[in-house]
Specification:
By secondary structure, this protein is of the alpha+beta class. It has two domains: 4-230, P-loop containing nucleotide triphosphate hydrolases (Rossmann fold, 3-Layer(aba) Sandwich), CATH 3.40.50; 231-361, Beta Barrel (OB fold (Dihydrolipoamide Acetyltransferase, E2P)). It has nine helices and 20 strands. The protein has helices spanning 42-50, 92-102, 107-120, 136-148, 166-183, 194-200, 218-223, 228-233, 369-375, and strands at 4-13, 16-26, 31-35, 57-62, 65-66, 77-80, 154-158, 186-190, 203-208, 211-216, 240-250, 253-258, 261-265, 277-282, 288-289, 294-305, 309-316, 319-328, 339-343, 349-351. It starts with a strand and ends with a helix. The relative contact order is 0.12. The structure holds adenosine-5'-triphosphate and magnesium ion (MG). Magnesium ion binds at residues 42-43. The site of magnesium ion has 2 residues, from helix 1.
């Protein structure tokens, strides 16, 4: 088992409240990813779960047992860091075996465990080498091997792949996803990489300044961000945010006026919004050529051709200089040449004056894929 509950968990450094009453349940076997801006408290939370940092108040509960007062080795947790922290003078075998040596495990049992971990991680041919001869990806696998042999209930990963180059990171991402499937262990993973978060997570926890901003399956956060922070954080390039006014609220949704054009956005509104300023959210990838429910003129100032896509940073009808549009790779656009573009009302997001999303009426049939994966074991 490996169920984790965080109940009103708080952390102070002096008078600075780094984590503010965190409430979170991580189910047995779940792959949960923490994301958030630098300094929001991701590593601190992971270290508190591991027992490496003290918890100021609240309970950390593993499989129903409060572990706040247990030392790290007694928590059934293994943590893998960005820096591999391998012993350079020891072989790969001894590096992986290290925690078992500390436990004084009998040699035959220890050997079987190390060899099994090495097989899972494709390190069987490397066991007698020293870490200095290995690539970054192989070294990180040794560090993961050292976590695996401990057979923890919960694995904690703090940006384990961020030292690797892009190709190796993609390979390791797939290896880790396979490892999760194979071990069926609970994993909590911190990353700055959107692709890692979106592809590996059953659920993503978005942290902002020490608080959970939203928790949900990756596509749920993408399609139904709860607020402007999550909307801006999930999705790359970032969602465009434009000021609009609420004209009316009806069964069909919220009628807005944007640059003199009326449009009804299919979201749940409230009568008190009429006449109020709202923020319209448009994802760059939802922009289309030509007219649509909302139409505008795009004048690119910078164009990035990525091959499959073209990203344009542009002004819209002569305003909002940093509007971003993601268009097909072959999009016939040039800098300083104005083209008509549009966006479908159903693709739009709306936020009230306090930045809270008005709920979109999108059918999210495939959203729970990540969670179903767990339910099915
Ligand atoms: N030992 C410490 N003493 C005082 N403040 C600390 C200590 N460790 C971390 N902090 C502060 O706590 C906050 C959260 O730090 P933390 O390392 O958890 O952020 P993070 O989300 O992991 O950031 P990053 O993405 O850059 O790794 C930061 O403001 C940091 O300066
Ligand atoms: Mg960190």
């Amino acid at each position: 088992m490996g169920q984790l509950n965080l109940n009103k968990v708080q952390k102070f450094y002096g008078t600075f409240e780094v984590l503010k009453s965190i409430e979170l349940e991580v189910r047995n076997g779940e792959f949960v990813v923490f994301v958030g801006p630098s300094g929001c408290g991701k590593s601190t939370l992971l270290r508190m779960i591991a027992g490496l940092d003290e918890t100021s108040s609240g309970d950390i509960v593993i499989d129903g047992k409060r572990v706040n007062d247990l030392p790290p080795v007694k928590r059934g947790i293994a943590m893998v860091f960005q820096s591999y922290a391998l012993y350079p003078h020891m072989t790969v075998f001894e590096n992986i075996a290290f925690p078992l040596r500390v436990e004084k495990m009998p040699e035959d049992k220890l050997k079987a465990k190390v060899e099994n971990a090495a097989r899972i991680l494709h390190l069987d041919q490397r066991l007698q080498q020293k870490p200095g001869l290995l690539s970054g990806g192989q070294r990180q696998r040794v560090a993961i091997g050292r976590a695996i042999v401990r057979e923890p209930k919960i694995f904690l990963f703090d940006e384990p792949l961020s030292n690797l180059d892009a190709a190796l990171r993609a390979d390791m991402r797939i290896e880790l996803a396979k490892l999760h499937k194979q071990l069926k262990a609970t994993m909590i993973y911190v990353t700055h990489d959107q692709v890692e978060a979106m592809t590996m997570a059953d659920r993503i926890v978005v942290l902002n300044a020490g608080e959970i901003s939203q928790t949900g399956a990756p596509l749920e956060l993408y399609h139904k961000p709860a607020n402007m922070f999550v909307a801006g954080f999930i999705g790359n390039p970032r969602m465009n945010m434009l000021p609009v006014t609420c004209k009316a609220v009806s069964d069909a949704g919220v009628e807005i006026e944007f640059k003199g054009q009326p449009a009804t956005i299919p979201v749940n509104g409230r009568a008190d919004l009429v006449g109020q300023p709202l923020t319209l959210g448009i994802r760059p990838e939802h922009i289309q050529f030509g007219e649509a429910d909302l139409s505008m003129n795009l004048t690119p100032s910078v164009i990035e051709r990525l091959g499959a896509q073209t990203v344009a940073y542009a002004s819209l009808d002569g305003e909002s200089e940093n509007f971003c549009a993601m268009l097909p790779g072959s999009a016939p656009i040039r800098t300083d040449e104005t083209v008509p573009i549009g966006i479908g009302a159903a693709d739009c997001h709306l936020f009230d004056a306090s930045g809270i999303a008005l709920e979109r009426r999108v059918a999210l049939t495939d959203i729970n894929v990540g969670l179903l994966k767990i339910a099915g074991g």
